[in-house]
TrEMBL record:
This is Uncharacterized protein. It comes from the Eukaryota.
Amino acid sequence: MRVLQKGLHQTLIQCIPRRLNFWLIQTMFYEKNGNCMELKQNVNVDPNDTVRWITYRYNGSKKFSSISPKDWNELIANREAMLIIEKNRKNKCSGEIKADARNDICHVIGIWYEILLDDYNIGLPSYKQARNVGWLYKQINTNKIVKDKVTELAKKEYGMTINGVKLLINYKLSRNSDVHKDSFNRDKNTPASVLSQQAQDALNLLRLADQSSDFQSAYETYVRRVYRKS
């Protein structure tokens, strides 16, 4: 495996395992994982990865293991070249990593939701208890009594400020709003023309999903049923 690493003014290549050698690299390099391709500051190049090199035209594509050290040095020294490292073993692109992190953070916040509601409702009659965190969030912004109670609870039980509580709740609400889009909702009064457009929009998402043909078939069948006029 060779590790490519690019600094502010130059790029270095480090050869492993026997010894460390460094060369100045003038080229740009990208890492391609499936449908995702990103400019990278450093890239791990494995023998089964495919290396594509491009100057003003497409020049070639080979397994990294079949490129000689001499040819490799010429490639990476070319000021006009761009290298695309297509990973044999697919990694997650940065967008997917960030989405996973966001979902995991929201999962943890959701666990805290249960604790917050239980703590808030202690000693309250049923008609004054918080039904869900969405309701509680609205009350914090409009009801001083609720806000003061949550402020005291957050400070005493969690060592948090009311602003911290609102930030966490708002983070999860924003994520839920992004994930659960109203534009795909329907009811019995939704016009057929709107249902048709919703179905088309839903099917168009398959081009971005990168799923198996079996999944695509199941999804298409499901979408046509969901957006069929009753």
